Q: What sequence folds into this?
């Protein structure tokens, strides 16, 4: 293992106005995305489509949501694992808390979510969450399209895009008030397709490279951090890397983050593309039902220190 922080994670600029499929800018960004997704399974995206005022509004909304009383936040329930409220209970307080919103790009969904927390409604928060989500959902589609194109499997593009929905999780990591690093979120791989993370001004996210080094992510005011999930790794038969990551906190400032997860729909079977299975790339995972995987990982959650990744359940 090398020393921490000696490597820079890739940074890719998505801000150029001529970023349209087929343009030379598109092709150049696409090759950077493919390289980063294979080598590191993650990269920082510079994306200036969201004005700073709107970013600030989102940070304010996250604070307002997560500062609600615990009993109020716990009203955000879902029958799906990891889709409601996560974190503290009165018996076991946690420095991490998260609230999930299903399909935040659809205004009615955001409104149903805020109505659970504020029965009298909260139009300001609903609008802030909704407006912020739209360009991020587009960024998700751009990145996935670039990866599908770079692997020459465009014939599956529509099926791939239609097989997912978006989940937004806003999270709070309480400042530990010490200079020593404390675990805010333990090391894990994401189960979904891709995750897009942004935050207030407090860093804490760390990524593990293939060599085992932990690299802290330094966000800039215009950046989003993109992480490849296990389902995308499985669908592409291991062409992409799905990195372990964690959140480590120190100091006196509370961190707020918003993560957009593109997630396989209920009952969707993830099966490696036959074009990507050959002698050089033997099949890595058996076809699996994403919802089943989610349920099994949820059942094992908390029982074990390092969550077993996809390989432990469905590896060939
Ligand atoms: O808050 C972050 O920066 C990361 C969140 C994360 O990794 C997750 O929710 O899966
Ligand atoms: Fe994650």
A:
């Amino acid at each position: 293992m090398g020393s921490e922080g000696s490597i820079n994670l890739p940074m890719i600029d998505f801000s150029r106005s001529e970023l349209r499929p087929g343009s030379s800018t598109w092709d150049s960004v696409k090759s950077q995305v493919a390289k980063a997704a294979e080598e590191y399974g993650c990269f920082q995206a510079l994306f200036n489509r969201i004005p700073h005022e709107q970013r600030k509004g989102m940070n304010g909304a996250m604070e307002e949501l997560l500062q609600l009383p615990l009993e109020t936040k716990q009203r955000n329930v879902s029958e799906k694992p990891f889709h409601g409220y996560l974190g503290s209970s009165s018996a076991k307080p946690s420095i991490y808390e998260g609230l999930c919103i299903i399909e935040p790009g659809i205004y009615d969904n955001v409104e149903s979510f805020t109505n659970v927390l504020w029965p009298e409604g909260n139009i300001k928060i609903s609008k802030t969450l909704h407006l912020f989500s739209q360009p991020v959902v587009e960024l998700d589609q751009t990145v996935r399209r670039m990866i599908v194109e770079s692997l020459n499997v465009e014939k599956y593009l529509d099926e791939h895009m239609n097989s997912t929905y978006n989940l937004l999780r806003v999270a709070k990591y309480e400042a530990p008030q010490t200079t020593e690093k404390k675990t805010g979120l333990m090391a894990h791989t994401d189960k979904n397709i891709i995750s897009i993370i942004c935050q207030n001004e407090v860093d804490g996210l760390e990524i593990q490279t293939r060599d085992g080094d932990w690299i802290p992510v330094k966000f800039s005011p215009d950046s989003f951090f993109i992480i490849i999930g296990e389902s995308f790794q499985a669908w592409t038969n291991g062409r992409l890397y799905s990195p372990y990551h964690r959140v480590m906190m120190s100091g006196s400032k509370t961190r707020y983050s918003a993560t957009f997860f593109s997630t396989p729909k209920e009952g969707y079977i993830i099966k490696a593309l036959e074009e990507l299975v050959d002698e050089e790339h033997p099949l890595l995972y058996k076809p699996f039902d994403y919802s089943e995987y989610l349920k099994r990982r949820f059942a094992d959650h908390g029982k074990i220190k390092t969550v077993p990744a996809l390989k432990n359940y469905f590896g060939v």
Remarks:
- The chain is about 30% helix and 25% strand.
- The pocket of fe (ii) ion (ligand 2) is lined by residues 188, 190, 195, 245 (CB under 6 Å).
- The domain at 11-314 is CATH 2.60.120.330 (Jelly Rolls).
